């Protein structure tokens, strides 16, 4: 992946010195995400859920926050900021084509833990998008886990994860995420999980759309990059994570889709480059 001539996004914040504490879920991260992340890090989801409690603002631990620059950024953070800038270009153009205005998301690079609009975030949660503050939260330890535990390597695999989270931002702007949340109280956990899978697969599709359109605007892909992205999509499939964590696969508990599904939708997005082809079952919102 060639990003040497790509600019860094100006919408990235670097936070350091954050403390560790229990995860506050009242702000909107939710049970489903906690369970999936528990599987990623080989923990018993029930034990994780029992440990989760609402945390009051007064328990916030100290740290520092500053705008990310070339001078204070690590190589990973520089790459992440360049990928975010590329998504900004792609989605601004895509929304403009639909006579809409794209609101760029922020991104937070943190260590150990930090406060988000969706509650307290810590390293074990992995990357996520918070719809409450329109920000993507990244901790490098997640990518170390992908590489060490699942053999996922290469910058494009990391770019895929970032583009997937930005895909959730696009869904949020289009009203797709709100549609799913409005249905939650009327559905069983099994039914809601099925819709959650549709949302996640659509975010994979949108990550593929980004790669297609970004490469046409400013070619940056090298041979093997898409395979790297597909490998990352496969590594975070529910079936693979469940098998690694518990030794068995429980389809009714899927929330993100199987490895095959995630690879299929990312590849479809990359081959199409057209958001209109990305209805995984939830519709396309206001697109």
TrEMBL record:
Q: Which UniProt keywords apply?
A: Membrane, Transmembrane, Transmembrane helix
GO cellular component terms? membrane
Q: How does it sit in the membrane?
A: Single-pass membrane protein
UniProt keyword Transmembrane helix, yes or no: yes
- Supply the name of the protein: Neutral zinc metallopeptidase
User: Where in this protein does the record put region Disordered?
Assistant: 1-20
| Primary site of residence | membrane
Report biased composition (Acidic residues) as residue ranges: 1-10
Query: Where is the protein localized?
Result: Membrane
Source species: Chitinophaga arvensicola
Q: Which residues cross the membrane?
A: 23-41
